[in-house]
Amino acid sequence: MTLRTSHHLLGALLGLSLSLGVVCATGAQTREGVNVGGNSAFSKLVPAAQVEQAAAQQYAQMLAKARAQNALAGANDPQLRRLRAIAAKITPFAADWNERAKGWKWEINLIGANQINAFCMPGGKIAFYTGILDVLKLSDDEVAMVMGHEIAHALREHARERMGKNAATGLGANLLSQVLGLGDIGQTVTQYGAQLLTLKFGREDESEADLVGMELAARAGYNPRAAVSLWQKMGAANKGAPPEWLSTHPSGNARIAQIEAHLPQVIPLYERARKTKP
Predict the structure, then answer these.
(1) Mean pLDDT by 10 residues, the chain (278 residues)
(2) What residues are annotated to the active site?
(3) Which of 7, 51, 101, 190 has the most beta carbons within 10 angstroms of its beta carbon?
(4) Considering the entire predicted model, what is its pTM?
């Protein structure tokens, strides 16, 4: 398939999705908090249930490997208990961003590794690595910003969107048949799982997750100003990172500027939560 043909197909699929009402109005303009629009139409090209099933399988395999290496924190681990307490405050607000989250079986685990990393798979499967807690010395507010950010990727279906784009550019007519209800794209849960391990989020996804995650944490009673200190710590820990134009991720300074610009939208949510919750 040529690049021009791919672009035409992408445009046709997106237009078809819009005409079929795949993209729903969110009413974001009238709600309190941040406004990032609706989920991408491309995410609708891949079955959500299969992506979530694949994520659950990959997550279970990852936990089994960590357990075999004695790297999986036990239920009484203080840091894991801390993470689960923070998650318990944030996840009740998830369904405001994605109705499917009402049926997700949330899990959060801690893996012993030096990586400065955390993630949330589709379906609410969360993992933190001890490195991000130990190296950055995160406060509860900063942990909430990380967790909100990762949960936001799942709620906004960024992985599913990327799979949809891959399918649109790689499967052509077969995908169009699926959109029209004439067949399926032949993907299996195993194939989706393989994609989940290699997908990378782009700048727009990361920026969106920053804002949505900050709102989720604020509604749960965590100070959104901690997003600034979080990325300052991230910047200090990643001195060797490439400049923004060489990376798919926004630079630390760009992220901080965006966060500070949107703080007025979420500070009232935090103040209200702080007054109403012990």
Answers:
(1) 45 46 43 82 72 88 96 97 98 95 96 93 95 95 97 87 65 46 45 48 82 97 96 83 57 86 96 84
(2) 150
(3) 51
(4) 0.77
